# Entry
Amino acid sequence: MRITPMDIRQQQFTVKMFRGFDTQEVDTFLEDLASDYEALLKENSLLKEQLQALEERTRGLEEREKVLQETLMTTQRLVEEMKENARREAGVIIREAESQADRIIDASRKAEGDLHSEIQALRRMRRQLAESLRATVEMYQRLLEQDLKTNAEDAEPPNA
# Structure
């Protein structure tokens, strides 16, 4: 059973005729005891309230910490996923670039081969044109020489 400050204040003692305590001293002591006890109970109650508030705050902080930990873990996982995606995309881009570079190199080699063939064809054509022109010039030169010879013969008096 718990004793309250009111119980202390209302406590009555039987007084014996001989050798009893001074009632005023006992009453004063009981009043002081009741006041101190009441102050301790109030302080105890206040401390319990403060403890409860701190426990609630602690629970709130623990929940926040848990949320922050989960957020941190989620963020780390997302960062890793983003890195992996970036690596994959970079690999795809590199493979596409290498493939395109190979196609460009192949096209350049084909174009180079086509240019070499065209150059060879143009050189053959130039030789053929030069030979054809030389043949034509030689033919005209023979014709001209023959015409000059014929004209010279026609211009000479007949020798008798």
User: Anything to note?
Assistant: The CA atoms of residues 13 and 23 lie 9 Å apart.
